[in-house]
Structures are given as C-alpha cells and as structure tokens.
C-alpha cells in the first residue's frame, strides 16, 4: 500500500508540497477551510532564489515555465527612502543590483496559486478541528464531521494553525505590533504615477508614524486562457504600530483609506500623498503581522508543519512565501529519498528549523530597527 498524505491548508506552501508529492505518484489531498475563491492575503508575492528553487523542484517544466512567464518584469533591488524621498542609510546594506542567481520577481499571488492548484485534489470548506494517532496512522477530523486517515498529516494552515495548537501547544506566535492596510493602485496608464515607483522591485518610504510600501506588478505576459485575467498594478501598503487591529478589521475601504492617510503628515513628499489618492479603496483590507517564537524539533510520528504554521515571520525580508515554498520542496524531496516516512519527516524538520528560524530572528531584528515591530 502506498503512502497517503493529508495537507491542511491550501496556501502556497501546502500546494507546493501537494505538487511535489503528486509528481511522485503519492496519494495526497489538501483540505482548505475557506471557499474556493478564498480570502484576501495580499495581491503580490516577491519571489527570490529560495522560492524559485522550491517551485523548480516541485513543478512540472510546463507549470514552472508558466510561473516565470506570468511574473512581473525584472526590476532593480529594493530601496528605503525617508518621507521626503531621500535615500536612507539602510540602503548601504541592500544590493545595488541583482545577478542572474539572485534576481527577484514580483508575481500576482492569485495567478501563482492557480498554477499550483493545477491537478491537485483540494476539498474546500473543510475546517480542521483535531487529529488522533491511530497506530502508525493519523486520523484528521473536520468541523462538519468528516474524517480522513493518512500516513502523514501536514499542517500548512498559516499563522493561526489548528494543527500547531494540538501538536505544539507551547509554541508561541506573537503579535508583532504591526498593522498593514493593504491594497492596490490600478495602472490604467503608467505615466499617471511617478517614474521612481517603477525603478525598484519594492520601495519602502518611512516616516515618523508610518511607512508606505510600493511594489509594482508589470506583467511580461498576460495569463493565458487557463488563468484568470490580471491587469498591471502597484501593490501599496501603509504600515503602522499606532492603530488597533480590532478597529481596522471593522472598517470599510473608505474608512481604511482615511485611517492610512491620517498617518501621512504634511512633511511627506507630495508624490506619496498622490499615490494614496489613487488607491482602489475596494481593494483595501487590514493585516496583522505576527512573528513566531523559536521552536525545537519534535518527534510526534505522522504529524508535521510547514510555512507560517511553524515559522511565521515579519515581511521585512520578503521571505515568508519563499520559505514556505522551500518547505514544500524539502518535505517532498525528503519523502522521495528516505528509507521510511518517519526518517523523511525527521530529516525535513531538522533541516527546516535550521534554515527557517534564523530568518524569523533576522526579520524580527530588522522589523524592530526599521518599522517599529515589537
């Protein structure tokens, strides 16, 4: 009898794992609590070498090529500016240019997710509640009473992971104190926006009460008929540690826009204020940033974690999605090359914690130094 794997969570990491396992002929099913159209998690993902390598390891050549074909045009590395658009001292720590080995691309999250969903067995509207170890297997239970038994249960269910709560009840995920108001600026005509917005893959403009992040998504090729259409846009987010998340969560788009603009003072460059005036208010939603405390390796047979479920991190390094994609590739590879499933999971966990936890710590350090993270 072959291996059966149940993945909880149809985010990027869980789908990457499912792709890798499916290519090995392993029976894998993904359970997702949300409906098929999902909830907003942000429009843009910044894929660097780590994420790109993960995709290359789990996807067929056709799907991998489709990911690159629908990515944004390559741009120069990120930069940091003050509220008057002057470069800050932190730019000395950033690369001046990318090489072919370090090139980073912006991709539209929904398009990447559609590609990762290709051929994957996903069951929507299934909220995981608990698991039970049954001999060498594990039984997953869902809110609607459904149960599924597998050789391995993988919690890929994000920051609020229900799998993690049972597996590692002591593992802390802390509120980083940062709130983002996230949305997009449509690009009907590129010359409507300041030219400097399109020079870098990401620009962070930092003021005394808030920071503004701008990431253009200028597609090289339009998604094909098999993918949903996407227009060019600039992802625009305003971050602060001065607004209660519970209040933001109850606001509509217009109210979120007003809350963000209220943080931008008269000493900010007029370009920034003009950019916020072009925000699509219907696209706005709030995000709360979390950061995981360090966890030690665990030895529960048949259950493991990946992505934000185990190593949620501040977005300062743009490594959250990249690391989740690597997790999916690492676990898939470990299963393919290990003598047993127990050995595969053990190898994966040790390796994952070794590369992910330093990134959590570094993203926290930079977040505290640059954008007011706790």
TrEMBL record:
A Pfam family matched in the record: FAD_binding_3
SUPFAM superfamilies found in the cross-reference section: FAD/NAD(P)-binding domain
Keywords: FAD, Flavoprotein, Monooxygenase, Oxidoreductase
Domain FAD-binding, chain residue ranges per copy: 295-361
InterPro entries: FAD-bd, FAD/NAD-bd_sf
Name of the protein: FAD-dependent oxidoreductase
Organism: Kutzneria chonburiensis
């Amino acid at each position: 009898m072959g291996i059966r794997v149940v993945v909880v969570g149809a985010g990027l990491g869980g789908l990457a794992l499912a792709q890798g396992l499916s290519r090995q002929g392993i029976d894998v099913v993904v359970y997702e609590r949300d409906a098929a159209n999902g909830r907003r998690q942000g429009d843009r993902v910044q894929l660097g070498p780590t994420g790109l390598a993960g995709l290359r390891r789990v996807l067929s050549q056709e799907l991998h090529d489709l990911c690159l074909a629908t990515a944004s045009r390559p741009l120069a590395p990120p930069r940091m500016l003050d509220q008057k658009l002057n470069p800050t001292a932190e730019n000395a720590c950033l690369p001046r240019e990318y090489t072919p080995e370090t090139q980073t691309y912006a991709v539209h999250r929904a398009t990447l997710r559609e590609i990762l969903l290709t051929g994957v067995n996903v069951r929507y509207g299934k909220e995981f509640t608990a698991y039970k170890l049954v001999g060498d297997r594990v039984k997953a239970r869902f809110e609607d009473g459904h149960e599924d038994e597998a050789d391995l249960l993988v919690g890929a269910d994000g920051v609020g992971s229900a799998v993690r709560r049972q597996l590692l009840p002591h593992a802390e995920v802390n509120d980083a104190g940062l709130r983002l108001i996230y949305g997009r600026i449509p690009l009907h005509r590129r010359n409507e926006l300041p030219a400097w917005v399109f020079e870098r893959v990401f620009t962070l403009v930092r003021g005394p009460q808030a920071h503004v992040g701008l990431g253009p998504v200028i597609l090289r090729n339009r998604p094909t008929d098999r993918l949903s259409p996407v227009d060019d846009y600039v992802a625009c987010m305003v971050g602060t540690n001065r607004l209660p998340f519970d209040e933001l969560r109850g606001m509509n788009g217009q109210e979120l826009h007003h809350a963000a603009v209220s943080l931008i003072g008269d000493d900010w460059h007029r370009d920034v204020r003009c950019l916020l005036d072009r925000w699509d208010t219907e696209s706005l939603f709030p995000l709360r940033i979390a950061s995981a405390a360090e966890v030690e390796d665990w030895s529960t047979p048949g259950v493991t974690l990946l992505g934000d479920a185990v190593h949620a991190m501040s977005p300062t390094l743009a490594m959250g999605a990249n690391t989740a994609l690597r997790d999916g590739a690492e676990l898939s590879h470990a299963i393919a090359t290990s003598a047993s499933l127990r050995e595969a999971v053990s190898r994966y966990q040790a390796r994952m914690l070794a590369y992910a936890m330093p990134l959590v710590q570094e993203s926290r350090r930079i977040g505290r130094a640059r954008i007011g993270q706790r």
